[in-house]
Amino acid sequence: MLDLIDNYTAFEECIPKSGSGVTFSETTNYMHGLPSIIFQNNYDSEFYASLNRRAIQLLNEFSTLKDNWDGELSKAPAHSALLKAKFIVKFLQATGQQVFHVAPGPRGEIMVDIRNKEKSIELIFYPDKVKYVTFSNSGSPQQGLFESSLFPELLGWLNA
Amino acid sequence: MRNVVANNEWLYRRGYCSPERKYMNPDGTAHSRVFKPRPIDKNELSVDVKSYTTAEVSIKDKSLYMLFELSVEHVNEVGLNVEHDPLLNQYPDADNPAHAVIVGIMDDDDIVPGLLAKKSKRVYV
């Protein structure tokens, strides 16, 4: 499966360690620079379908927020930010990576928080850019502009 | 003229949690967006100085907000200062002698909001 097509690059680092048998491959830049995925459908689909259900429900609710949604003059979540965040959450769901939380921010951004023990990654989808921030107990926090090519490395760091 | 708030003081910061309380972290802690200033804040984040107010006053509406406390010492540790900025006679019925601001959170800084969130603790009102 990993060698299905020469041009496809498999993110082996992202394959769940639970032995569920999920494999996936990056195809082309599908949406806003994020990779699309092909799935081998031999995993526990019910488990994966429910893994990030809460986050996806919240993202759907965030799409109804208007300006000043918090009574503090925060901007409504940007449509592009919601689309990208939802895509990433579903991507993570398919790989067995649970999302800890998603939250809207004051500048129209959406924050996706992924955690593993003392480490965490925040993906912050602003209307005009996507950033990542890493936190751990053993090193200084890091931030940068997020690109899909960084994702295997970031998830590898989180799950190491 | 603002006065610097001493590092033995504590601060309150409230965060919108929706009526169902599901916008905050599932474990009840604050997420980083609670400590991210708006563009109009000009790099200053509004807080209340605990010794000048009460949790009940600071939270305003506990059906919509959660309240978190944070020590000035922790704010200083990440390289920022807190300045007392009482709001008096500016808005009708909105005087807030406890108001202060965390100064210097830059627009492109997403580390500090996360650090402040991780250092904060929920105050049950």
- Gyration radius of chain B, in Å: 14 Å
What's the count of strands of chain B?
Answer: 7
**SSE sequence of chain B, one letter per element:** EEEHEHEEHE
Instruction: Name the beta content range of chain B.
Output: 25-35%
Which strand order do you get reading across the main beta sheet of chain B?
1-5-6-3-2-4-7
Mean pLDDT of chain B: 94
| Percentage of residues in helical conformation of chain B | 10-25%
Which consecutive residue ranges of chain B, at least 5 long each, have pLDDT under 50? Answer: none
Number of domains of chain B: 1
Number of helices of chain A: 4
Distance between the termini of chain A: 24 Å
> Which ranges of chain A are low-confidence, i.e. pLDDT below 50, for 5 or more consecutive residues?
1-42
Structural classification of chain B: alpha+beta
> Major sheet of chain B: size, sense and barrel closure?
7 strands, antiparallel
Summarize the structure.
The complex is a heterodimer of chains A (160) and B (125). Chain A has helices spanning 45-51, 53-62, 79-95, 151-159; strands at 9-10, 24-31, 34-39, 101-104, 110-116, 119-125, 130-136, 139-145.
What do you see in this structure?
In chain A, 27% of the residues lie in helices and 30% in strands. Chain A contains four helices and eight strands, in the order E-E-E-H-H-H-E-E-E-E-E-H. In chain A, a hairpin with a 2-residue loop joins strand 5 (110-116) and strand 6. The radius of gyration of chain A is 16 Å and the shape is globular. Chain B is α+β, with helices and mostly antiparallel strands. The radius of gyration of chain B is 14 Å and the shape is globular. Helix content of chain B is 16%, strand content 27%. Chain B has a seven-stranded antiparallel beta sheet. Chain A binds chain B through residues 54, 58, 69-75, 100-101, 103-107, 109, 111, 113, 122, 124, 131, 133, 135, 141-143, and chain B through 16, 22-26, 31-33, 36-40, 64, 109-111, 114-115, 118.
